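Support case: user asked for a sample of complex input and structure output to validate their parser. Sending the pair below.
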Amino acid sequence: MASILTIIISSVFVNNFVMSQFMGICPFLGVSKKLDSAVGMGLAVTFVMTVASAFSNLAYTLILVPLEKEYLYTIVFILVIASLVQFVEMVIQKISPALYSSLGVYLPLITTNCAVLGVAVLNMQSGYNLVESIINGFAGGLGFMMGIVLFAGIRERTAHNRILSCFEGFPIALISAGLMAIAFLGFQGLV
Amino acid sequence: MIIQILIPLVILGVLGVIFGSLLGFASKKFAVPEDPLFPKLRDVLPGANCGGCGFAGCDAYARAVASGEAQPGKCPVGGSACTQAMSTILGVETVQEAPQVAFVHCSGTCEATSDRFQYHGVLSCREAAMLPGGGQKACAYGCLGFGSCEQVCPFDAIHVIQGVAVVDEANCKACGRCVKECPKHLISLIPKDTKVRLACANAERGKDVKMVCEAGCIACGLCVRSCEAKAIQMVNNLPKIDAALCTGCGACAEKCPVSALHRVTQEA
């Protein structure tokens, strides 16, 4: 129980995927203009990361380890994750067209989102079992969602501020992202 | 040795086949029925993706028309032929809109006006317009002539000739990109059949205009007096022509001492 709590706190706050490992920056910057689409993206990434953790762990322990082909993990994880994202995309398009159109091009981008591949690789390197992997993936997704939602809130507040014209748009977004990352340094040493 | 190569191949091959068939099954199971009108409408649109209709591109516009959120006839590129085709697909009456064209309200060529200083910055109107006094041109209202409009035009229909942007009306599709780009707000969309056009935007009068540009409107008011249809009024030291009253006789353009008013002769 204690180790599970440690995993959760570690991947939500201390080793937050966006803020301290700098993974998944593309959707973090791309879909953080509006709060509601940021929530949608956060939920999609959380879901994909949880499922990807589970399936990549299964693929690793059930296929690669018995066959002693562990070195194939990168390409197998990519295969698993890419198929998963395709599947999630189809499901979202069917169930919620509004979410589908608001996520737009960013949903296929989850495929190449390194936070998703990163969580699978980290699970394997840390030697997590299936339950721990799923929890780590879910908590990592929660951390991503927290980061993107907080960031979207900041961007919505600053959208209509008077900013030097050379800083408008992405420059000011990158500066605020950097400041947020510095703030997350405060969690360092917690676990 | 050969086994060492074959095993990974088999693993990845089998995984690929499994995932592929799962996805194939899912794409049937979760297929979203598309509006049958959408592909037809998209085929009619020119595919320029210029955004002149106000939507993100031809696809977005076709989707909006298919779902009834937008009307046909917003496409400036396709013109009336496109409107006709879209209306036929939808089965509604054609709403004809007068074709429009972009027009630059400035005739301050290199000969007519001069530069206040030599500009050595980035060759973009937006950059130059940020300078004190609004750029290097002597006339603070005039075309800067760096061709930002030329760069954004998707149809190669506007060119800087002798320091002033000139619209090539045969190619202009009235998408409005240049209208948005011009930092001096000199370009506007006007009906293509507008007969008399004012090519000046200087809101000063008399000597103040004459000092900076020979082709600028000095607000003398001769056009107002010469107009038999009483279609011209002076607004902000510039003549404003009421299109509903204008007969296109061209008396004002003949009287204009600086030729800021142009009479356009239409061949069609």
